C-alpha cells in the first residue's frame, strides 16, 4: 500500500486531520455543549502537545533520517505499527483521558520514536543529530510528568523542550533554504551565516527554557525570556525573510519562526508584569509556532520526497494565513473584554487551515512519486 511506503505519506496528512478536528471538539466542550469527558482541559492540553506534535515529529524524523544517515527508510510494517500505536492512543485518550490504560498506550509512543531514531543515528554514527533523539525522549518524560505527577510542570516542560527544538531545527533550515533560493536567482545579499549572534540566541533561549522549567514564571525567567526574545528577533532579521516573499513556502518558514521571539516576549511579560498570562504563552508556542512551523516543514518534505517542485500555490498562501490568523486571534483574545468569541473564531480559522492542509497533502500522499 502506497501510504506505507514512507512515514510522511501516512503521518503528515492525518496529523493535520487530527488537529483540524480536535480543536472544534475542544471548543464544543469549552462552550459547555457536551460534558462526556470529566476533564476536557486535560484532554485538550495533552492531545495538542502530545498527540499532534509527536505525530508530526515522527513523520519528519523518519523522512529526514535516511537523508541524514544514508540508511534505508523505515519499512511498511514499522510505519503501520507506529501509526497504529499513535492512532490507538488518540482513541484511548478520548475515550478515557484519565484512565491508566489510556496513559500507558499514550506514553509508549515517544520513547519508541526516540529509540528507533537513535538506532539509525548510532548505526550511521551521525552524532550531530543525537540531540534530536534526546529531545524526543525528554518530551516523553515531560508527558509522563503531565499525566502521572504534576500537570502544570509537565506542560511547562513540554513547551520549553519544544521551544528549544524549534530554535534548533528552525534555525538550521530556514536560512539554509532561503540562501539556496536566493542564490539561484543571482542575489548577492544572502542570509548571514551562522555566527556569534546565532550562538547567543541559542544559548539564551536554552537558558530561558531551563529557567522556565526549574523556576516557573519567575523574575529570572522573565529576564532571560526578554533577552531570548531580542536575540531571536535579531537572529531572524538577518535571514532576509522579506526577500523571499514571492515563494510562500519559504516566507512561511520565517513567519513561523517569528512566533518564537513573540512567545518569549509574552513569557517575559507574564513573568515580570500582569500584561500577559501563561495561557497566551502556551498558545503563542502551540497554535503559533508549533502549528505553523510543523505544517510548513511537513508540506515541504511531502513535496520534496514525492518528487514535486517545492513551490507554494495560492491555496497554500490562504491556509497558511488562516493558521496565523487563528493564532493571532487566540493569543490576543485575553486582551479583550469578552475573549470567548475570539477563542472560537481563532479556533475556527486554525482548524480550517489544518483541514485545508489535509486536503492539499492527502492526494500527494496517495500518488506515486513523480
Description:
By secondary structure, the protein is mostly helical. It has two domains: 1-149, no CATH class; 152-358, no CATH class. It contains twelve helices and no strands. The protein is globular, with a radius of gyration of 20 Å. The mean pLDDT is 95.
Descriptive tags:
mainly alpha, 370 residues, 0% strand, 2 domains
How many angstroms separate the termini? Answer: 17 Å
Q: How big a fraction of the residues is strand?
A: under 5%
Overall mean pLDDT: 95
Tally of discrete structural domains: 2
Low-confidence stretches: none
Overall strand count:
0
Which structural class do you get from the secondary structure elements?
mainly alpha
Largest sheet: none
Proportion of helical residues: over 70%
Shape: globular
> H/E series, N to C?
HHHHHHHHHHHH
Instruction: Tell me the radius of gyration.
Output: 20 Å
* Individual helix count: 12
Concise description?
The protein has 370 residues and is mainly α.
How does the SSE layout of this entry go?
Elements: H1 7-30, H2 40-69, H3 76-95, H4 100-123, H5 130-148, H6 151-184, H7 196-215, H8 219-237, H9 248-272, H10 278-305, H11 314-332, H12 339-366
Helix pairs in contact: 1-2, 1-10, 1-12, 2-3, 2-4, 2-5, 2-6, 2-10, 3-4, 4-5, 5-6, 6-7, 6-9, 6-10, 7-8, 8-9, 9-10, 9-11, 10-11, 10-12, 11-12
Amino acid at each position: 500500500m502506497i501510504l506505507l511506503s514512507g512515514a510522511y505519506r501516512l503521518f503528515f496528512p492525518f496529523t493535520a486531520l487530527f488537529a483540524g478536528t480536535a480543536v472544534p471538539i475542544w471548543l464544543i466542550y469549552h462552550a459547555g455543549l457536551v460534558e462526556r469527558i470529566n476533564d476536557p482541559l486535560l484532554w485538550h492540553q495533552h492531545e495538542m502537545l502530545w498527540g499532534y506534535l509527536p505525530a508530526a515529529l515522527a513523520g519528519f524524523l523518519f523522512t529526514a533520517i535516511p537523508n541524514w544517515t544514508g540508511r534505508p527508510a523505515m519499512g511498511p510494517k514499522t510505519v503501520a505499527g507506529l501509526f497504529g500505536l499513535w492512532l490507538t492512543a488518540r482513541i484511548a485518550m478520548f475515550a478515557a483521558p484519565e484512565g491508566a490504560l489510556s496513559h500507558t498506550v499514550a506514553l509508549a509512543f515517544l520513547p519508541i520514536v526516540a529509540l528507533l531514531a537513535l538506532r539509525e543515528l548510532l548505526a550511521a554514527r551521525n552524532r550531530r543529530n543525537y540531540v534530536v533523539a534526546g529531545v524526543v525522549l525528554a518530551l516523553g518524560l515531560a508527558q509522563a510528568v503531565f499525566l502521572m505527577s504534576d500537570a502544570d510542570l509537565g506542560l511547562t516542560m513540554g513547551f520549553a523542550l519544544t521551544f528549544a527544538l524549534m530554535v534548533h531545527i528552525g534555525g538550521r533550515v530556514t536560512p539554509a533554504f532561503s540562501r539556496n533560493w536566493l542564490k539561484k536567482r543571482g542575489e548577492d545579499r544572502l542570509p548571514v551565516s551562522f555566527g556569534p549572534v546565532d550562538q547567543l540566541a541559542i544559548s539564551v533561549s536554552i537558558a530561558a527554557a531551563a529557567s522556565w522549567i526549574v523556576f516557573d514564571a519567575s523574575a529570572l525567567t522573565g529576564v532571560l525570556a526578554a533577552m531570548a526574545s531580542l536575540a531571536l528577533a535579531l537572529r531572524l532579521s538577518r535571514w532576509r525573510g522579506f526577500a523571499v516573499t514571492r515563494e510562500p513556502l519559504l516566507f512561511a518558514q520565517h513567519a513561523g519562526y517569528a512566533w518564537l521571539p513573540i512567545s518569549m516576549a509574552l513569557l517575559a511579560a507574564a513573568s515580570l508584569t500582569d500584561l500577559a498570562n501563561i495561557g497566551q504563552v502556551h498558545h503563542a508556542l502551540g497554535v503559533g509556532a508549533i502549528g505553523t512551523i510543523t505544517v510548513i516543514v511537513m508540506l515541504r518534505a511531502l513535496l520534496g520526497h514525492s518528487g514535486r517542485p517545492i513551490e507554494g500555490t495560492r491555496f497554500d498562501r490562504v491556509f497558511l494565513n488562516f493558521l496565523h490568523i487563528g493564532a493571532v486571534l487566540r493569543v490576543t483574545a485575553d486582551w479583550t473584554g469578552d475573549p470567548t468569541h475570539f477563542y472560537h473564531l481563532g479556533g475556527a480559522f486554525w482548524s480550517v487551515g489544518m483541514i485545508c492542509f489535509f486536503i492539499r497533502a492527502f492526494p500527494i500522499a496517495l500518488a506515486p512519486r513523480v
